[in-house]
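Hi Y.,

Following your request, here is the sequence exactly as I used it, all 93 residues.
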Amino acid sequence: MNKSELIEELSMRMALHPKKAESMVNTILTSMVNAMKKSRRVEIRGFGSFVMRDYKPYVGRNPKSGEKIKVNAKVLPFFKSGKDMRDRVNEKP
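Below is the corresponding structure, written out as tokens. Let me know if you'd prefer a different format.
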């Protein structure tokens, strides 16, 4: 599912105008990004949590040429699914 499909689903389920559904989705995503920019954890009960993880610099390889390259330190979002979501995804029909 991509963002436009999520907006369409929200619009249909909640009987909202698509522009209103788009605004709601954008507000939620912007709020999550702003919280993560401040190194805050975002937790959605029954779904999972997002945290920022620090990654140290390392020497990697260019997959095309095999040449060694230096990869700088970075901070990236990390998602951990909640137990409820894992259970729902793994349910037998």
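Residues 1-39 form one domain.

Thanks again,
Q.
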